[in-house]
Amino acid sequence: MSSLDAVAVGSAVIDHLYTLSNLPEPDGGAFVREHTTDVGGVAANVASTLATLGNDTGIVTRVGADAATEIETDLQDRGIDCSHIQVGPEKSSYTLILRGPNGKRMIVAGGPSVPNLGVDEQDLKYVSDADVVFTSAYAPDQVVSTLVSARERDEISTLVFDLAGPLSELEGRGTTPATVDRLLATVDLFVVGEVAAQSYLGAGGEDAISALSERNVSRAAVTQGSEGALLLDRDTVVNVPAFDVDVEDTTGAGDTFTGGLIHTWVLDDHAARGAGRFAAAAAALNCTAGSARGTLPAERDVRAFLQSQ
Known about the structure:
Blueprint: E1 6-10, E2 13-20, E3 32-40, H1 42-52, E4 57-64, H2 68-77, E5 80-88, E6 94-99, E7 105-110, H3 121-128, E8 132-136, H4 141-152, E9 159-163, H5 167-170, H6 177-183, E10 189-193, H7 194-201, H8 205-214, E11 219-223, E12 229-233, E13 236-240, H9 253-267, H10 272-286, H11 299-308
Parallel strand pairs: 1-4, 1-8, 2-6, 4-5, 8-9, 9-10, 10-11
Antiparallel strand pairs: 2-3, 6-7, 11-12, 12-13
Helix pairs in contact: 1-9, 7-8, 9-10, 10-11
């Protein structure tokens, strides 16, 4: 098989989406108005975004036998190469997504299949043939460390990393701070949300951008939800506002934004401002329907939306 544009390494899970009367406070409660399931996970969401935008995309992940058929069928239907999905005897990993009436949500993860993910020589050959490799902090530390080593040896040409959660959430199952420290010297695009930035860098917004710049990160994105994002492009900081749309569900918006950045800023080498606007538009369109991949847009849909603004 010819090389792929991108390979995502990490989590593909079953999302359990609960639409609630309200997001509960500590010791409080809520009523479930609707419960649906879908395929999700950071790697699956980013891979789905890239495939929908027209890229030849693959995934390396581990799923449990109980959900293997559902996850593989979904990803294959989206045009993603699933030849490197590992199927284990354990239960598949999952997320519980609690969505309030205003579209905001809380996410709780569990299940052993993603923490059991490993990569062997065949997996490394598979990812090294791709133009871009994406992974996140939800991938096991040994997996991310192996990818960083491959990037250090130039066996991987381009590595994109998303510090997808705060350090406390990652402890014992995801990437360690030491590995994150190490990858900053080699990563080609570092993505981090406000909560994770506060946890790892002790700062958000422009202060987080400054901290990454001081660590010689050449390209980075600090996402800020409805406030948009800040992009670091070597010595330049670009402010990317979010687009105003009727929000149904914000789940997966950050992953769609990351996929949009990879598509335009990394694969197509567009300027940071244009790439950021494209990624923000893609994320906004995905928020207009429920689930993490509710309305993943094709490139023509994003371009049409941008022209309308």
